[in-house]
Amino acid sequence: MRVLHVVHAYPPSIGGSQWLMKNLSEQLVSRYGDEVTVFTTTAYNLELFWRSDVPAMPAGTEEINGVTVRRFPVFNRFGRLRMLIAGVAYRLHLPCNDWLRAIYNGPLIFGMTRAVANSEADVVFATAFPLLHMHYALAGAQRAGIPIVFLGAIHTADTWGYDRMMIYRAIRQADAYIAHTTFERDYLIKRGIRADKISVIGPGVDASTFVKADGTVIRRRYGWGDAPVAALVAKQTARKRFDVLLEAMRRVWAMHPDVQLLIAGARTPYSRQIQQMIDALPSEQQAHVTVVNDFPEEEKPALLAACDLFVLPSGYESFGIAFLEAWACGKPVIGARTGAIPSVIDEGQDGLLVAYQDADDLARAILALLADPQRRARMGEAGRRKVLENHTWGVVADRVRTVYLEAISRHTRPAEM
After folding, report:
1. Whether the predicted pLDDT of 48 surpasses 90
2. Number of domains in the chain
């Protein structure tokens, strides 16, 4: 089967969509011998889509682990003007403000629609909304009569990004849609998407590397000894709610002064604010915070294995791959009771849910898990079973490929308009 994958960025760019597309592409090549091509951009970071002063990869085509990767340059001029026009149109509810927001976000790529149409693929798969490449993929596939599958990764709480009629019109025209969670599926059905075109398939992880991970070296490196460790391993953005975690930790430290906090992830401009919040803590609390910036991906399993519990206070997750990674290491997780997250965490079984943006509730959950090592172990083991049964890359690739084959087989039916 000739498969064309379309994604806004691809490794070495870092992100959930990038990681999903890389692993899915390589699984299809190695497991099935499929011919997989990826159309993407030259971006390391999404800021390239509206800023010309950030690094970019060279445009062109290369082969990576059997996958043909073509990187398209993006048009990123007039970013501030695009943002101004989109913002005004959004606030005033002007017609076509959804398209103006999409033009601001980008990526603006000349020639991608034509390239998709000329790809001679048997199926096109694109992820993720709200970015503009999704619409290039749809237009190109329709022009050539190629079936198209979307994975939208809808963040329902993000109205700026996802409250756009253009997104749901595009989904209605796709041959199939892959939702990360039952929450996302139900949300789309309410938006008028046919239930029979939606398949619920969560993301995957390289479970074996996490299952066998050893955190001893990490604990020794940072001098934690046998102290309990809470961790947030994620890209350092405001949406991950590092502020709520740090406020919760003030309350945790009042009861449990020996607890260590690990903050690890790729730096962003928001990293400066995280450091300012840490600097505002009393010196004895600062001494219990370890920040690990821009660590190599291969070190993530050891970082998670070194902690006792994983915390992700974010409310803007379409799934939360980090939960899977923590579970694969046998760790209990704490997430926010909002959006898709309650459909990912089985509360009381493999983790706890807390009120979104409620530092007191988060502190109570952390303290409850710290007080009961046996409960932590049970939850971590339940999470690991969930990952091994449903979220290895092999399982995910098999399920996604089945959706591709079904989309191809029914493509002769008239598209839903």
Report:
1. yes
2. 2
